[in-house]
Specification:
Radius of gyration: 24 Å
Strand content: 15-25%
Structural class: alpha/beta
Strand order of the largest sheet: 2-3-1-4-5-6
Shape: globular
Largest sheet: 6 strands, mixed
Number of strands: 14
Order of helices and strands: EHEEHEHEHEHEHEHEHEHHEHEEHEHHH
Length: about 400
């Protein structure tokens, strides 16, 4: 990823859905101005969700996702439909493409029901308006689930003739901007001019020539708050604190260095980690703090799922596959069964696990992180994240969430 690129997790995710041959991929290509999706008269040309990071004017940085037809058939078709429905868990806006000639089908109605159930903003796009032979558009509108959609929810277009494509993009932008949040990583917890010390170990897992994404984003957030960031390695923290003319407002550390950093940081200085800040940023902090206490209840043979939102080459002392499993077994003294998932993999059936420990989720957007948390909660499985789990096992959790007064009072 270029340093000049907006991270995927910070882009608006827009999913395009519909039946096979509704012209869904043609609409995607018309909206993006690119041949993003393969277009064919053969039904079911799109066989897997296709994602593309791009700039979509007048909105800005987005992820466009073209999905397989919701009415796909056969065993492979069922798998494709399943993947299509999984896309709903990570998008911020849904676009349903309907063949204006064919009209609304039960599959379309099912999609709209899912949009509403998941509280997703959505647009209904009637494609192929060029085939209506001059018939007034209003005469073609039908009821969805017994309800007439509002004008703001629907638009007629022709992907072939590029009619109303500009208007469609304006509608998408207007709807997406309503969903923008004012989430901050740390800026709302500090004051203008505050000094923040960031502890960023440089080890074999760190990307060559740059910092990892949470560190980059935290530095940017501090700068936007007109505060000051000082970045040091874990072995330089004590000397840096001694040389500073005043104590920093907060020390933020990579969770892997929590133990050493807690020793080197005076109790009078607030301490937390990138992972804990990202638990709040992704909307799971409170539940993750509640869930971490399940560690002390683990028994021999219990299964623990360690889940990461990205895929990367695992190093010899990888935090997810090596360090956390080792710390868990040392802390509990139990013979635990550890399972790992990464990237878009996240089991639908979580009932076999006694605990889920998730990464900070820097590569996942807030909607997907909240979805994973809800899946766990619905199945009665506690879920926490790396930083919170490590702080708990190091005996410094209360200190690490002191920066969040509402949580500190609960511990």
């Amino acid at each position: 990823m270029s340093l000049n690129s907006t991270p995927s997790s910070e882009r608006v995710h827009i999913g395009f859905f519909g039946r096979r041959n509704a012209g869904k991929s043609s609409v995607v290509n018309a909206v993006t101005g690119q041949d993003l999706a393969v277009v064919s008269d053969v039904a079911g040309t799109t066989t897997d969700p296709v994602s593309k990071a791009m700039e979509l004017l007048p909105l800005g940085p987005v992820i466009i996702i073209d999905t397989p037809g919701i009415d796909d058939e056969g065993k492979l078709g069922e798998l494709r439909v399943r993947k299509t429905k999984q896309v709903l868990n990570k998008i911020d806006l849904a676009v349903l493409v309907i063949d204006a000639e064919a009209g609304i089908s039960p599959a379309d109605e099912e999609l709209v029901r899912l949009f509403r159930e998941k509280e997703l903003p959505y647009l209904i796009v009637y494609n192929k308006m060029d085939l209506l032979n001059g018939q007034p558009e209003a005469d073609r509108l039908e009821l969805l689930n017994g309800q007439q959609e509002t004008d703001g929810h629907q638009i007629f277009v022709s992907a072939l003739e590029k009619k109303n494509i500009y208007e469609l993009k304006e509608r998408i932008a207007a709807l997406a901007k309503k969903e923008e949040s004012c989430r901050r990583i740390v800026a709302d917890l500090i004051q203008q001019g505050d000094l923040c010390v960031l502890v960023t170990p440089i080890d074999s897992a760190a990307p060559k020539g740059r910092l990892i994404l949470p560190q980059q984003q935290t530095i940017r957030d501090i700068l936007e708050a007109d505060a000051v960031s000082v970045v040091v390695k874990e072995n330089g923290l004590r000397a840096a604190l001694e040389r500073l003319g005043e104590p920093p407002a907060v020390v933020i550390t990579d969770s892997q260095a929590f133990g050493q950093v807690a020793v080197d940081t005076p109790e009078s200085i607030k301490l937390t980690s990138f992972s804990i800040l990202f638990a709040r940023y992704k909307g799971i902090l409170d539940k993750a703090v509640e869930g971490v206490t399940a560690i002390k209840t683990l028994r021999d043979g219990d299964k623990v799922l360690i889940s990461e939102g990205c895929t990367h080459h695992r190093q010899c002392d990888d935090i997810g596959s090596v360090k956390i499993p080792r710390w868990l077994k040392e802390f509990t003294g139990k013979d635990l069964k550890i399972e790992l998932t990464s990237g878009t993999e996240f089991p639908e059936d979580l009932s076999e696990y006694r605990l889920i420990i998730h990464c900070g989720g820097c590569m996942l957007n807030e909607r997907e992180m909240r979805y994973r948390l809800k899946c766990a909660a619905d199945q009665g499985v506690p879920m926490t994240n790396y930083g919170i789990a490590i702080a708990y096992m190091k005996g410094i959790l209360k200190r690490s969430v002191e920066i969040f007064p509402h949580l500190y009072r609960l511990l």
